[in-house]
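Let's sit down with a protein and look at its sequence and fold side by side. Once you have written the record down, we can walk along the chain together.
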Amino acid sequence: MTRLDLTEQETLTLIAILESSLSELITETAATENREFREMLKDKKKFIRELLEKLRGNP
């Protein structure tokens, strides 16, 4: 397992980047018609949501 020690500013920046990516994925998921691609995007959204929970202190 890899562990990162981030400053508060680094954590906040990473959260902002992940939230932006999540927003883009939500839009992209809604726009895609390819079922396999949609499932891959759903997996990415789930992964990003889990990372955000950890970064916010909700493991």
